[in-house]
Amino acid sequence: MTQRHETQNEFTMFVTTNTYKRNPFFLNDSHAHEAIEQIYRVQERMPFILYGFVIMPDHCHFLLNVPEPGSVSSVIRMYKMGLSFQIGISPLWQKRFYNKVINNTAKTLRYIHNNPVKAGICENQDKYKWSSASGKWDITPLSW
């Protein structure tokens, strides 16, 4: 079997994963909250650096770096399986996820944080509670 995501670690990665059929499961506040708690549970078991995230109604964006021997695939697999179990929805996710090595981390983090504003969910990114832009969640600040 070939590796679908050739780049797996030691790079800052922009990761997007979509819900099954783009269903807005995370409009439910308890599901959105659990989606954030799950990323921290995965981080405890499989250490990685989390620079930022946003939980949108039908998808999630993460900016992270997975050091060796870990991999982006194993982090996202554990995240998706665990969250599906925690909130009791199956299928919760589309089978695949998107990841990209980032050259400009600050620009990518701005894109992630601006996602709810662009979608018309809120007027200001720091007002969206399911985002690291809100200041309510523990993340590793970018080194500018």
Structure in words:
This protein has three helices and four strands. By secondary structure, it is α+β, with helices and mostly antiparallel strands. The protein has a single domain, classed as Alpha-Beta Plaits, CATH 3.30.70. Strands 2-3-1-4 form a four-stranded antiparallel β-sheet, sandwiched between helices. α1 packs across α2.
Quick gist of this model?
The chain is 33% helix and 17% strand. With 144 residues, it is an alpha+beta fold.
Could you tell me the strand content as a percent range?
Answer: 15-25%
Strand order of the largest sheet: 2-3-1-4
Mean pLDDT: 93
The CA-CA distance between the termini, in Å, is: 39 Å
Helices, strands, pairings?
Layout: E1 12-18, H1 29-45, E2 49-55, E3 59-65, H2 72-87, E4 98-101, H3 105-118
Antiparallel strand pairs: 1-3, 1-4, 2-3
Helix pairs in contact: 1-2
Task: Please tag this protein with its features.
144 residues, alpha+beta, Alpha-Beta Plaits, 4-stranded antiparallel beta sheet, 3 helices, 17% strand, globular
